[in-house]
């Protein structure tokens, strides 16, 4: 069964801080082929497309395209702010392994 990704309150709060929703933008989370483990995440601010899945909280939105959705079933999209840097992260239960940087994974 395919579950939609979950977006944490921290991720929505960071989107509100940068004012993404006010500009009509959303955080796009996509999965592409490549990276050191076979697949990689592409995370960027983008305009929603008609066939995107939209996860919203107020003005802030996270979007996932239909091709990436099965790869992100049940995943948790979060925002972390650590000594090494601040970034959006994905905890993906479908990944069997991932690289050290967290942007590449295999299934």
TrEMBL record:
List the InterPro entries.
ATAP, ATAP_core_dom, FeS_cluster_insertion_CS, HesB-like_dom_sf
GO biological process, any: iron-sulfur cluster assembly
Pfam families, from UniProt? Fe-S_biosyn (PF01521)
Superkingdom of source: Bacteria
Give the matching Gene3D superfamilies.
Answer: HesB-like domain
Domain called Core: residue spans: 6-102
Q: Which GO terms describe its molecular function?
A: 2 iron, 2 sulfur cluster binding; 4 iron, 4 sulfur cluster binding; iron ion binding
**What name goes with this protein?**
Heme biosynthesis protein HemY
Q: Which organism does this record belong to?
A: Mameliella alba
